[in-house]
Amino acid sequence: MPDRWPCSVVIAPWVIVAGTLPPASGQVVVYCSIDENVGRQVLDAYKARTGVDVSAIYDSEAGKTTGLVQRIIRESQAGRPHADVFWSGELFNTILLARMGLLEAYESPRAADIPARFHDREHRWTAAAVRARVLAFDPHQTPEAQLPKRWEELAEGEFAKRSSIANPLFGTTRGHVAAMFALWGPERARSFLTRLRDGGAQVVDGNSATVRAVMAGRAAFAFTDTDDVFEAKRGGASVDLRYLDMGGGGTLLVPCSVAIIHGGPNAAASRSLVDFLVSPEVERMLAQSEARFIPVREALRRELNIAWPPETIVDYNAVADAMDEADAAVREILIR
Predict the structure, then answer these.
(1) For residue 89, what are the domain limits?
(2) How far is CA 102 from CA 39, 64, 262, 263, 297, in A?
(3) Can you name the residues that pair with 87 across neighbouring β-strands?
(4) CATH of the domain at 54
(5) Is residue 317 part of a domain?
């Protein structure tokens, strides 16, 4: 995607530091791929505190994040960015937007205690509040001894035909597959997709649909995110989760990300909103929300007694690098 962007769009060569800016006022427009029931609570809290009129546009489940990313690109190409802030439920598309010159450089002092790997070196985005990629299953139907231990096992025989995966061209599943390409290499990752297809894995619209397939008995295993499992459990479903090994003994952790859109109409209010969204207060709200995000701040995890899941270590930029190749393989092998 970055190779197709015209060279006339550039990243602003300065970093704006909060504290030297006029106070927030008026309105701010947010493109948000955080689930609406969670995102709205946070944005309503910001509006109540500041009086700023927040207009939020959310993405659909099936087109998660990708739809809003394409909208940002189209509006920027036309020279008319509509939104000020992009608040995403993942990071990888945000990295691509930064590379395309569509995000403003801004360093929020409220993010000073976020670990360095969750900051863009050029200050174009900040990440916080992670979810984990997990296997969902019905413990009443699948005994513990029958669970796979590694993601790669889901492409094997009986596991594949009993598995459900969201369309890997969208949302966190897109990043998950790209991470496989980054960690395993193209040959091994393509083999995984081929064996999933040949084994009869179901491809559905969205992570929540994979969990519903398990709940309905159409699948035994779901590739999904932690929050989708928590939502199903709140509804009384017999469903549980497991962290599968993707490399190094852990699974992929996907952080949310916050960025200012280059050329947005409400610059001062956008910086104020970013300060709020990357603050410890909002990470606490997200951790205590229905989605149960995991704070990247160790002090918050200690305060809330939240454990850091077993994690495969992968450079988020390497995952973004692999997205085009992973998308092409998905279209060729899995989505035909």
Answers:
(1) 22-130+254-307
(2) 23, 19, 5, 8, 28
(3) 32, 258
(4) 3.40.190.10
(5) no
Q: How many CB atoms lie within 10 A of CB 122?
A: 14
Whole-number pLDDT of residue 3: 34
Summarize the confidence of residues 44-60 as an average pLDDT. Answer: 93
Query: Residue 9 falls within a domain, yes or no?
Result: no
Integer Cα distance of 296 and 36 in angstroms: 22
For the cut 90, the answer to whether the pLDDT of residue 26 exceeds it is: no
Q: Where are the alpha helices (DSSP H) in the chain?
A: 36-50, 66-77, 92-99, 157-161, 171-184, 186-199, 207-215, 226-234, 267-277, 280-287, 298-304, 316-329
| pLDDT tens-digit series, residues 123-182 | 999 999 999 999 999 999 999 899 999 999 999 989 999 999 999 999 999 999 999 999
**Contacting residues for 13 by C-beta, under 8 A, at least 6 apart:** 105
Residue 223 CA to residue 204 CA, distance in Å, equals 11
Q: Return the pLDDT at 267.
A: 87
Name 118's Cβ contacts closer than 8 Å, sequence gap at least 6: 126, 127, 128, 255, 296
Indicate the pairing of strand 163-166 with strand 27-32: unpaired
State how far the alpha carbon of 222 is from the alpha carbons of 115, 154, 206, 244, in Å. Answer: 31, 10, 11, 12
Q: Judge contact between 17 and 105, C-beta under 8 A.
A: no
Judgement on whether residues 146 and 110 belong to the same structural domain of the protein = no
Asked whether residue 226 falls in the same domain as residue 112, the answer is no
Please calculate the CA angle 274-313-226 and round it to the nearest 5 degrees. 65
How far apart are the C-alpha atoms of 146 and 86, rounded to whole Å?
Answer: 41
- Mean pLDDT for the chain? 91
Pick from 89, 23, 103: nearest CA to 275: 23
Domain co-membership, 109 together with 43: yes
Helix, strand, coil percentages (3-state) for the chain, rounded to 5, are 45, 20, 35
Question: Rounded to whole angstroms, what are the CA distances from 54 to 5, 187, 218?
Answer: 30, 46, 41
Please indicate, yes or no, if residue 17 is contained in any of the structural domains.
Answer: no
